[in-house]
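Recall the central idea of this unit: under ordinary conditions, the amino acid sequence of a chain determines the structure it adopts. In this exercise we apply that idea directly, starting from the sequence alone.
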Amino acid sequence: MFMGLLKSFANLNIKVREKVVGDTSDDDLVEPKSLITEDDVKETLLSDKGEEAELSSWEVVDFTKEGDNYSTFVTSIQVTYFMNDEELQVSYITKVNPCRKMEGFESITHALFEKEANFYLNVVPDLNSALEEAGMEALNLPKCYHVSLNPGQERAYYEDLRERGFMMVDRRDGLDAAHITLVLKELAKLHAASRLIQESSPEQTLEERYDPSLKDWLNLGEEANEVLTPMLQGYLNQARGILKDAGEEKRILDWIESLGANLREDLISKMQSDTFGCICHGDCWSNNILFRYEEEEPIEVMLVDLEACRYATLASDLNYLLYSSVEHQVRKEHLDDFIGTYFSAYKDVVEAGGLEMSFTEEELMEEFRDKNILGAIFAMMIVPIVLFEVGDLPRVSEFSGDLEEAMNDFWARVKELVDESPMLRPRFLDMFEEFTETGLIP
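Accordingly, the structure predicted from this sequence is:
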């Protein structure tokens, strides 16, 4: 979810001033890709191919569309190298500090890089080891080869999954049942593997064991919270404005307004669960999921972008996915099947690891519904932005770093586009009808 909160600033195409350790200049703008070094490329290549690989040349090749990169700058590196007298090529994905000079964002950016780096380096090996011991396949995640966490210059290098045929879907299209089924099975494997780890070492919580990987993104420190709290409130206010313009009932508008009083604290509280607590992806929506296809049918999924990973109720991932990335009608027709698919996949892992299930399928559905408030908040913050063509969103050539100014400019343009979007109702407005039917909205 945290990545979703930052997407508006990427879509604004904000140019920001350089903030690099040891540099006191406020006048020069920096390209994030300038942080990529040949030493990084060498380290990445050796980590991937071994000590015999000899770097010949490399170049940065952009491949993402404007608006795909939110909390980080993402690009690729095409590498030519020699091994056993043979010239070969390989591609890597790199995520780089976007170099936004916005008050509070420097600490947020560093915390997110630190979280993801530690997740790949420390948590993933344990999760996969637990799955291997249970006779299950490893998690479908890209390999992480090299990370540098120098403040202001953070960068990380990953496997390029495009070379294995994986691709993104159009974020504006809701995922259908075939795509969601694959994602739910993979989420269940992630969640259940974390329970295997917890049960093997009950004397220490997962949060204690994997700090700072599972640090709560809702509480990254005082400086970050000063940015996050008004941002959360601002997103709800603007979503309420969209609904008001669309003619939604006053009771729905009043309900949304009532959420804002202690929103961050209420979110933290709602994330908690003893029975359903696990390691969560934290930002599981269509832009952070890749698929591989055969004859136009999805057959394999990869979860990417784990900056927002955290310990929380598994229902937070389920709500985030099903309300950010699925149209109302698909969710309504298939929800029982979705919950059943997830439950069966989770159960398979837990029982393969020699444990008993700690909840039933009915209790899982109850937890999902009990945490629907998370799905509603996530969707209100993200969906209106996701639905638009990036070129339709406001473009700011240079920005001084004022958060309120950025949000006002952005949402003013979003409101203009609402009436033009044929996707708004099936992905956004109809959700409130569902929440009225389930009793979330009184």
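The first strand starts at residue 54 and ends at 61.
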